[in-house]
Fold this sequence. Notes:
The protein is mainly alpha-helical. It has helices spanning 37-43, 48-52, 59-70, 77-114, 136-190, 198-208, 210-217, 252-264, 278-291, 311-319, 325-330, 334-356, 364-389, 395-440, 448-458, 460-488, 498-504, 542-569, 575-587, 590-606, 615-643, 654-670, 689-739; strands at residues 4-6, 220-224, 233-235, 241-243, 271-275, 509-510, 528-530, 533-535. A hairpin with a 2-residue loop joins strand 7 and strand 8 (533-535). The longest helix is centred in the N-terminal third of the chain and has 55 residues, at 136-190.
Amino acid sequence: GPPRIVLRYDYNIIPVMSHIDAPSPTKRYRGGFSSSICASLFEDPHRRKDCCSLACCGVLAGDRSRYLLTNQLPPPLWRRLLVYIALPAGLYVADRIVMRNIREEVIVEECHDAFPDDGSGPFLGAFNSSKIHDDQSLYQDVENASIAHVVLSFSFYLVTLFLLIRAAANRFKFRNQVIAHLKQKSLEESGLNESDDIHTIIEANALLHKNDTRQATKICGFYRSPDDIINHSVQSDDDNILSTDEQNSGDLCTCLWSALSKMFCGICCGCWCQCFGMCATAQEEREIAALVPQEKLLIDYITFQPYKEYFHSQHLLRTEKNGNLIAHIRALSALSSQLMKMSIIFLAALTLYACTNIDHHFTLPNMVLVFATLFQSFFILYFVHWNWHRFDLSLDTVIKCFASGFVFSTSTAIVVEILVSFVVYFVTGLLGVIALVFEVGNLDMSDPQTFIPALIRENAWLGVLAMFLNAFVVAATTEELSKYFGWFMVETPESLDEKDLNDMMEGADYIPSDMDQTGSTEVDPLISPNSRHSTVLYQRGLNSKGVGITVGMVSTALGFSCCENLKYVFSSTDLSTELITLLARSIFPVHALAAALQSIRVCQRDLEGDTNMGLGRVLIPALLLHGCFDFFLMVAPVIISVRHAGDIVGGGDDSTYIDRYNTYLGACDTYNAVDDGIWKPKGKGNRNENVDEVDTMISGISFGLSTLSVIIGCIYYFVQSRKQKQRLDLLESDNRSNII
């Protein structure tokens, strides 16, 4: 089960009382946090709740901690969605629509100048040299739209800043409350000042630690390195003490993460980098565990519904092999029910919006594509969960995992990919400058027609390296980590240790069933009689747990891929392009397969007890699959571009001119800004037909290699899954023999 946290505080006021026979710390706690969130994410596979401090900037984790400590409920979900999401998102979308209209007006005017309706021209020089100032009416429209853009942008940033400042103030206030309760508990344990009023302690603490606490909870900033921050220890069930300050050995991924995290957590300027108080929020969740009873911690996020209110009915569905969909829906937790209702309402509202034709880029056919994208993920999920393994993982957990992947994994991946992309661009740009310095002296710069193509061909490796880093670092590593943590942060009754689960459900009545999960009518020795009823000993087989892990991780990956597909599909304004994109991304469910590969090694770590299975080893097969699949697709355009490097400086070359003509005409046709009866696409000009054949062959080889990587990944998964099933069967047999 999750380790028990024992916190020791020395306020230089009272002696330290600890249940662990260890030297008392002498450092003074200043109101911030005692450890970096980076440590527990990679070094402790049981600290699920620390991941929640990353999701939504720790808002959900903070709500849960506040409820557990003060019984204070957050505002209704609909109000929070309206204020914190709908309002800023509405301003942002309105601003994007205004900017798109400005751009469209300018493009349409350029198209009319380049391709006149009288058939004269074409005048391709009209592009990128807009004459909007010559048309007073168009200029006035653009000016009015620009004013609206400024107003909407200012409103968006003002509202966002206000909400961030308000959230930081709430974090600061609650941080003082947590510290005051911890201090009161220490006083009570020492037998001193047990009658002190908690509000008096809060006020005193706010004055004493005001600056430090504010630094730990502010929007963004730096917090002084932990030279005088308390030490805290983690005690596991076997009474082994693991200090978070110690250097833990691990695999390559863990060591790299440790080195990177130390740059931002203690070494960089002697400070811990802070963002939205996430480290302090994670610290609060660890501290809450020492302030409230264990059974009170077993609740859902958002709704705060205790697990024991709904888990027993879900367990009965499993033991009775009840496959009725309505029964499973009725057994859902309040959180899953809310997620389903909100999704249905949102899709209905989006459908009505598409029917109004307010936005001509999002009409009813586009809404059909939305449903098609959702259907692709639900179709796979139907077979993976409902058709094959509905009794190994509850529908409730599947819904939560899917939602976590759709919302949390995707949002985290987008932010991290942007940050990592900057680093990749900087590295490749620096290498490009160095290469240019060395190549300039060896190339003839007198003729740009030969110099630029030669420079591109000589440094083709740089483009291949950029695609490699984009595939394996920006895409594969970021997305696989985001999917892993998206699954990891979903804590449900089925993820609890069996001892904690049975303690939680102690005394629950069991309705006898004629048949157990294996189809046997014999009495299970794991179910023992208690008075007139039977008390359920909640214990599942290892293979069922392993399948549950796989289904949960695949559900998270499908939620992630569903959101990603929606993003890619609607990145184009052309309906046919959107449809082709959806079909192309539906052929290979790479995200789901990569998650299944991760689950094999997660089962080795969590079920088979392989302590050497660090996060790096968990992710390696998925990284190789995902990285190879993306790299082979990304590198083909680079190779083709290098082959046609001479076309870049072709100037008046016929083929280059025709390419420009067709490109501009296609763009104008997208906006219905040209007369199709007058302006038609032209042929390939003087370009050699063999070039197209070679390009087609390169693209075909690239697609074939990507397909091969998926096939190899499938074979690897099925082979390893079969082997793991045999190992788990052997462990299960040994466990049952010991119980009997």
